[in-house]
Specification:
Blueprint: H1 2-18, E1 27-31, E2 35-40, E3 45-52, E4 58-63, E5 70-71, E6 81-96, E7 112-126, E8 129-131
Antiparallel strand pairs: 1-2, 2-5, 3-4, 3-6, 6-7, 7-8
Length: about 150
């Protein structure tokens, strides 16, 4: 019984942590040879662009009005492999604050906050440059597959 409840709690925690209301930042990722950016298709503010990759690579930049870009070279050495990026921003839409606590500042507690939105994805670096991913590309039929033993 204890293992069942522990397993159920772990599953619930995993599902709650992956649930996010903000996965709706509309736009298109932009990639150069070593640059990562994002072109939003709506009006947003307070952007943060974060990139993580192999061997502990991590970079993050923020800007209030324009989407920042990250040039991988400016953050030190980077290796070939798969990288993750995430863009977060604030939309013009306001959401009510359900637990308006008085934080001691003038004007009392805030009644609303801007809606937080985000988008994320992956890209690959090969030979020191970002490679273009073709979603229509298929593996050749004659490619050798590793057999399990």
């Amino acid at each position: 019984m204890r293992f069942t409840s522990l397993g159920l709690a772990a599953c619930l925690a995993a599902s709650v942590s992956s649930t996010c209301l903000g996965q709706d930042l509309k736009g298109t990722p932009r990639f150069g040879d070593t640059q990562v950016g994002f072109a939003p298709s709506a009006t947003y503010t307070n952007f943060t662009l974060s990139v993580s990759g192999p061997n502990g690579f991590a970079a993050s930049v923020s800007a209030e009005r324009e989407v920042p870009t990250i040039d991988l070279r400016r953050f030190g050495g980077f290796d070939d492999g798969m990288y993750n990026f995430e863009v977060t921003a604030s939309a013009d839409e306001k959401l009510p604050v359900r637990t308006a606590l008085d934080n001691g500042r003038d004007g009392g507690p805030t009644a609303s906050v801007r809606k937080s939105v985000s988008a994320s994805g992956v890209f690959h670096v090969a030979g020191g440059t970002i490679t273009k991913f073709d979603p229509a590309a298929r593996e050749p039929e004659n490619a050798k597959r590793l057999e399990r033993k």
